Amino acid sequence: MSRARILPWLNLTLRSACSLCRAGFMEGQPQGLPNPAEMENGTKPCGEERPSEIQETTVTEGAAKIAFPSANEVFYNPVQEFNRDLTCAVITEFARIQLAAKGIQIKVPGEKDVQKVVVDLSEQEEEKAEMKEGANLAPGDQPRTAAVGEICEEGLRVLEGLAASGLRSIRFAREVPGLQSVVANDASARAVDLICRNVQLNGVAHLVHPRQADARMLMYQHQKVSERFDVIDLDPYGSPAPFLDAAVQAVSEGVADTGVERGLSVPDCPRWLMAISHPQALRIVLHSLDLRANCYQRFVVPLLSISADFYVRVFVRVFTGQAKVKASASKQALVFQCVGCGTFHLQQSWVKFSAACGPPVAPECEHCGQRHQLGGPLWAEPIHDLDFVGRVLEAVSTNPGRFHTSERIRGVLSVITEELPDVPLYYTLDQLSSTIHCSTPSLLQLRSALLHAGFQVSLSHACKNAVKTDAPSSALWDIMRCWEKECPVKRERLSETSPAFRILSVEPRLQANFTIRDDANPSSRQRGLKRFQANPEANWGPRPRARPGGKAAGEAMEERRRLHQNKRKEPAEDPVQRAARLKTFPCKRFKEGTCQRGDECCYSHSSPTPEDAAEATPNDGPKTPYQNPPGPGVATGPGVD
Ligand SMILES: C[S@@+](CC[C@H](N)C(=O)[O-])C[C@H]1O[C@@H](n2cnc3c(N)ncnc32)[C@H](O)[C@@H]1O
Ligand SMILES: *[C@@H]1O[C@H](CO)[C@@H](O)[C@H](O)[C@H]1NC(C)=O
Ligand SMILES: *[C@@H]1O[C@H](CO)[C@@H](O)[C@H](O)[C@H]1NC(C)=O
Ligand SMILES: [Zn+2]
Fold first, then answer.
1. Residue to mutate (ligand 1; options 186, 194, 208, 219; most atoms within 8 A of CB)
2. In whole angstroms, how far apart are CA 27 and each of 60, 219, 271, 272, 274?
3. So what's the pLDDT on residue 165?
4. Top enzyme class of this protein (predicted)?
């Protein structure tokens, strides 16, 4: 991620409501968008079956079996399985909370009966308890439950706005209990045909209702309080921006008195994210979402925000409330970042209804003397509800058979529970060490030094080299100065005006202690959880939009993908980035004790932990520049989740 990438991003979020929508209609023009005359707004009748295409593939994912025209593989992206599994897990917890408030217990496949699990009764007592329970009920009055695949009259009304093959909706219907209905909508006629066929194939026609409409129009038609959806899932190819305005108005209201809220989930899309730097996305998406909600006296409360593979996905609740909306202004911040050493400072725009004073930095960086770049605005509040994340984590950990990607869900959510909630930005190990051209301390050494000095430190689920800390930048640079003393950098190689020279010419005031502490090793890492995914498959990455032209076009495109895989030349990688990226790989010669290059070696000389070795090696390193974003080095934006 280069410095320059911050700016287009910010332009996007800063655009006015009108231009955002207009941009949406131009850029977000869906593939195969039927002409308006063809567009229907009623439930799509699934009666007339088309003759099935000559070649067809079926894929099983979760409890759904989906037919795809194999001519057009873009309809199924297996890498998104984690995303869909996680979404099922999140909506299940949401349904559990929501329905419990109405006295309905959801029955999750694989979970034992809650009463029997929670209360560890002896058999006799259990019998007594069951008898008592029975005694309290009027004859014929069963405790109310909701199971998967059946309509729950008081359950959640779900909209999947961009449903493609219907896979996600069908999985909701077959795997998430407590649903009243699922509308599976897509603008493309071909997609809706496919949805209809798959709905029949899976026997969920009673729950899943295919629709063909522009998702925005559909959501605008559901603004009336009584017609809103309880869950809206949006999974666009491009920017989610065009959908935010309609979405924040079509999602039902939080139920404040029970403390239980309704939700909305908005993920982000690959293509758009590739143009901007991926770790920055979450907080900017949250900020733009809140901004849209604010227009309608509503505001968002994040439940869970994930940056994974090539996309980000945020789960938020939406509430109405004038007073709270006013407070939204103080949830956003700008970032000042030094272009020389990468040190950043947050600047809130508002503090308790009055304009904040600033800037938080002098014109020249206190550490290296260079200028600052301005970034943001971004969401500066916590991005997860840890209580809710804990529930999802608990449910998935105790029932791992439920999802194919349970292990990864467990790893990622565990890192999230360890993240410092009040520290929005992070540095990366590589960025810190490449700024002063020194060797890279191990993550444990740096974390230990911060803890010894009395600060907090955590990872970020968005980046495996992240250093999130409440230490002031002066303390962080002192620790790096002390580290450099242990593996000195040759001063004569440094230009006197370089950030490295300036930083290293100051004596540290803090005496860093790099002795490894037990508590420096995050528990998720100690337990060996699967936390940061290596590239999952050969052709991994976002799928292109479906294109007219059928099979031949599809094949030609796959061929192009194959040709370009690992060969993305444009934009050419910046030398600084390349150096930083190489530095994240352990040096083989150094391991064997034969590397002569010392500090000059382009590979890392820090001893890799077994996990690091498993997660990144020179041979199966990042396959595109977008995953495992390279250590930013001197010329990058701050890591933001
Ligand atoms: C990334 S795919 C959705 C994948 C799906 N959610 C899943 O998990 O399998 C995006 C879909 O959005 C549809 N689409 C694009 N713009 C749309 C719009 N304005 N309204 C409705 N659907 C749209 C496209 O036809 C495409 O099928
Ligand atoms: C769609 O809805 C509009 C407004 O409710 C209506 O005028 C139109 O006839 C509908 N179109 C179809 C195909 O149902
Ligand atoms: C560093 O920390 C270790 C473990 O707490 C301690 O034994 C050691 O004395 C410390 N070293 C310094 C120089 O303070
Ligand atoms: Zn600086």
1. 186
2. 32, 19, 11, 10, 15
3. 93
4. transferase
